[in-house]
Specification:
heterodimer; A: alpha/beta; D-Maltodextrin-Binding Protein, domain 2; 3 domains; six-stranded mixed sheet; 38% helix; B: alpha/beta; 41% helix; 16% strand
């Protein structure tokens, strides 16, 4: 579960943590005035923020004290990698929220990453051993009929079956279901997501036919490389969070098309439970009713073995944490370990970290999971091997064919950052340039802009850099971006439709095909009369293209940029294309958001 | 001996002071005051004038109920106030605090003080496009009918949203999941319905800037107070429950609803509760309130 040695974590740390620094910001939090209480700020990974807030609220009401002073626990959500980076490089309370007294990433591995980075900088460790708050294993989620077609539950299924499905050329025909078409896999980017990282480790162990001691030599074996390439070839897109897959899957299910989106996704067991409860993102919003899916997902515990996310509770040994806060933090951790609270962990679909609390519902077949599994656990590789794994993934991940469509309407000339004086267009250009390094050399990349001439209703769609390998186009894009300037209207619907059609025409089945649309406003093409018809045509076109086995899925990732972006329309576009919308309503967040978008490729 | 006498005297003084304090607390309706100042009364702008008249001796703050709700949802420090607003807002507060695992802040809610129906106000264009003006007809978005709605942080605005979506979905018993469907999103983006700011009612805009809207929802009592005859109010056949005003005590706030009922009745409200009908749940209304529309 943890790095066995921290000797060579440096590179892994730099690679993983810096990449993960884009993987999400602060979302949920407890607001309110702590008064004169001892404040315990808790930074937790996003999947457990809801539970942590609930428990913190209870703890705060319980009257717990340190030397007669009340305790006020204040959780905030922070992606694990981002937390590691901030703790290692400097936590700015103005932009990143309060520095944590307790840090709870998804996995202990992040604690090792943090300490190694600090060690490399000649600084003392910030975290020791963290009590596991709760655990959840990585599984391969599959619609039940598809799992059954593979012989589940009588036959154990594993990564080698995934490989076979991905590479046989027959897809589901080989299993008697030609109507299900080719095999499609959902898998997150291991540089951003703990699930993605765990899946990469697990599939590589399977390729090496090992459950421990994965070595750098193993990574170089042609069979291991081929195995990885084969699995990755079935990926529909990557991304920073598994929730994108779960939400799209659920929406498809509600339309009766659960078998037409992806056939499998590497996620945590908890996500399968949430999905089968009818709450795919694990968070019931106001007025939301859990509605069980039409087609249940089941958790496949790969027969080759899997890994746990152990959600450690680290008390941070920083100079901003005083003795009273440490005592208060320990009191909260003790509270979290109480049996009644560990029961709550169960309610949220996790397995308790307190061994005295037995597994119970919802860790049960009713919700598609098996409390007796996993039967084989994998060892987290040595840091040097981790580095090698991530390097290897960069080479073997599925290639991408991406069109960037940039809004250069007049409003892009508005101030985006009051402090720096940069316009929205300036910030967007910078974000694009910063993201270019994330593309592999042989990814295909193009840049288009859209606006109109302000006089007619004809959209002005300009091919700024034609489709070509990123190795050459990245520099070309960086060069021409400097010459772009804000112009006139925002023919959003027509420009998106034209470029989507173009992406379809150039569809490459060996790659992730995607269109990234960055827009800061509502559709404005000088003719409002046909807007609704245009939008309807676009949405129908996207929906037709993203579903069905004969489809050529081009994923459209809209970015709602600035406060005037038409978020509902962009969200509808994303959902029609079975992808995800990204919110950059604060223009200053565009670099972070753009990096999240690019994590899909 | 002297020590005992002194102790008895101190004890007696404490008891007397305590008795006086308890008497004053009872007289104030069980209200905790700070420095002798009663808790403020937060009033929904819909009943703002009546509220001021009903609570002449208290600090009355007129605030959009959505803003009051937001503060009370986050409240952790035992804020005390009286909240005069439509019953749905109090229900949202209670439901949402429970969903978010936050402690209850509503200590009591009065019986319904007064009520009035939510109606559609419009002129000839409304009845041309919707011969029987209904929420379903508005949701269908007939060509040439400009619909104006109030801010979702207002009572009329929020209830109108609930009714409009009910009209679109064809059922009042929907969940916020239904607001995620593609069909709903498409309808939202294409309905062309305008939503007003927190400070300007759609009804006022329609009446003062002719041509802005053809129809706007309103509280019937409000419309009647205006005394306009150039447009008509219509009670939709698919109307939801009436707007029902209550007084909620938040925290340790106390006090009665004073002369509120009389003041509202004077302003064309009906005493007590009104007609009730199935409608969206409090959670759904909250989802509609915070729905990202742009």
């Amino acid at each position: 579960m943890r790095f066995r040695s921290s000797a060579v974590l440096l590179t892994v740390a730099a690679l993983v943590a810096s990449a993960c620094s884009f993987g999400g910001g602060t979302d949920g939090a407890i607001d309110g005035d702590p008064g004169d209480c001892v404040v315990v700020d808790v930074s937790v990974s996003s999947e457990k923020i809801q539970l942590m807030i609930e428990l913190a609220e209870e703890f705060n009401r319980s009257g717990a004290e340190v030397d007669g002073t009340c305790i006020f626990v204040r959780p905030q959500s922070k992606a694990s990698g981002l937390g590691a980076t901030l703790l290692a490089e400097g936590w700015d309370e103005n932009t990143d929220g309060p520095r944590p007294v307790i840090w709870s990433p998804a996995s202990s591995a992040w604690g090792a990453v943090l300490n190694q980075r600090l060690d490399d900088d000649g600084q003392p460790a910030l975290v020791g051993d963290g009590a596991p708050f709760m655990v959840t294993p990585l599984v391969i989620a599959m619609p039940e009929p598809m799992a059954q077609a593979l012989g589940w539950p009588d036959t154990e299924v594993g990564w080698s079956d995934i490989l076979e499905l991905a590479t046989s050329g027959e897809g589901w025909s080989a299993y008697g279901h030609p109507e299900w078409g080719e095999f499609r896999l959902g898998k997150t980017n291991p540089n951003f997501s703990t699930s993605g990282l765990s899946a990469l480790i697990a599939q590589t162990y399977a390729a090496a036919d090992k459950s421990e001691n994965l070595s750098s030599e193993d990574l170089e074996r042609p069979a291991v490389v081929e195995f990885g390439q084969g699995v990755e070839s079935a990926v529909v897109h990557y991304g920073d969070t598994t929730l994108t897959f779960m939400n799209n899957w659920f929406r498809a299910d509600q339309r009766g098309a659960a078998l037409g989106y992806v056939a499998a996704a590497a996620v945590e067991e908890k996500s399968v439970i949430d999905y089968n409860r009818g709450d795919p993102d694990g968070k019931l919003e106001a007025g939301e009713e859990p509605r069980p899916p039409r087609v249940k997902l089941v958790a496949i515990y790969p027969r080759e073995g899997t890994l746990y996310s152990d959600n450690p509770l680290f008390i941070v040994d920083g100079d901003w944490v005083d003795a009273a806060q440490k005592t208060a933090a320990q009191a909260f951790i003790d509270f979290l370990q109480l049996e009644e609270n560990q029961q709550k962990v169960l309610e949220f679909g996790f397995r308790p970290g307190n061994p005295s609390v037995p597994l119970a519902a919802p860790i049960s077949a009713e919700f598609g999971v098996d409390p007796a599994q996993p039967s084989t656990l994998l060892e987290v590789p040595e840091p040097a091997v981790m580095t090698g794994l991530l390097d290897l993934w960069q080479e073997q991940r599925k290639g991408a064919r991406v069109t960037l469509l940039l809004d250069v309407s007049g409003s892009m000339g508005e101030l985006g950052d009051r402090e720096s004086g940069e316009t929205k267009l300036d910030l967007a250009k910078r974000a694009i340039i910063e993201s270019l390094d994330e593309f592999a050399a042989d990814d295909q990349l193009a840049l288009y802009t859209f606006t109109d001439d302000g006089q007619s209703t004809i959209p002005l769609i300009v091919e700024v850099v034609p489709m070509g390998p990123a190795s050459g186009n990245a520099a070309a894009i960086e060069r021409v971006l400097g010459g772009l300037f804000p112009q006139s209207g925002t023919p959003l619907y027509e420009a998106t439709q034209v470029l989507y059609q173009q992406s379809l025409d150039g569809y490459d089945s060996e790659r992730i095909n995607a269109l990234v649309v960055l827009s800061d406003g509502r559709n404005d093409d000088g003719s409002a009369g046909n807007d609704q018809q245009q939008l309807q045509t676009l949405l129908d076109m996207l929906a037709r293209g993203s579903e069905g086995q004969g489809s050529r899925p081009v994923r459209v990732f809209p970015i709602a940029y600035g406060g005037d972006a038409d978020f509902p329309v962009l969200e509808a576009i994303a959902e029609s294309a079975a992808s995800a919308v990204y919110d950059a309503s604060d223009p200053r967040s565009i670099s972070k958001v753009f990096a999240e978008v690019v994590s899909n490729f | 001996m002297a020590g005992k006498r002194l102790g008895a005297f101190v004890m007696a003084a404490v008891l007397v002071l305590a008795a006086v304090g308890i008497r004053r607390w009872i007289d104030s309706g069980g209200e905790v005051t700070l420095g002798g100042t009663p808790s403020p009364v937060y009033c929904d702008p819909l009943v703002g004038e009546a509220c001021k008249a009903a609570f002449p001796d208290r600090e009355v703050r007129i605030e959009a109920p959505g803003a009051t709700l937001d503060r009370l949802l986050d409240s952790r420090d035992g804020e005390s106030l009286l909240w005069v607003t439509a019953d749905v807002w109090v229900e949202i507060l209670q439901t949402e605090r429970a969903r978010l695992s936050r402690g209850a802040v509503v200590s009591s809610v009065s019986d319904p003080v007064a009520s009035t129906p939510l109606v559609l106000v419009g002129g000839a264009t409304l009845t041309d496009q919707c011969p029987i003006p209904s929420w379903e007809c508005l949701a269908d978005g007939p060509d040439g009918l400009d619909v104006g709605l109030d801010s979702r942080d207002s009572t009329v605005g929020l209830l109108s949203q609930g009714q409009l979506v009910t009209g679109f979905l064809g059922t009042p018993t929907f969940a916020s999941n239904d607001l995620q469907s593609l069909e709903y999103r498409q309808w939202r983006t294409q309905s062309g319905i305008s939503e007003g700011s927190a400070t300007t009612r759609a009804l006022d805009r329609m009446l003062t800037a002719v041509g802005t809207f053809d129809v706007a929802p309103a509280a019937l009592a409000d419309w009647q107070q205006l005394g306009r005859t150039d447009m008509s109010s219509h009670t939709p056949p698919d109307a939801g429950s009436d707007i029902v005003i209550v007084v909620a005590a938040i925290g340790a706030a106390g006090g009665s609803s004073g002369d509120l009922e009389a003041e509202l009745v004077e302003r064309d409200w009906l005493p007590g509760g009104g007609s009730s009908a199935a409608g969206p749940s409090a959670g759904v209304l909250e989802a509609l309130r915070v729905e990202q529309t742009n």
